[in-house]
Amino acid sequence: xxxxxIDTMPAEIRRMxxxxxxxxxxxxxxxxxxxxxxATRTG
Length: 43
What we know:
The protein has 43 residues and is mainly α. It is 58% helix and 0% strand. It contains two helices and no strands. The protein has helices spanning 2-8, 11-28.
């Protein structure tokens, strides 16, 4: 499984991969939104 590979990956590599992913998300504009909370209800 994917988690097995992640669990055995050195912590420094995990930190580097996390930073790479975060930079990519910011560069290409991937965002995540949450819908359906009480603040979004009308009526």
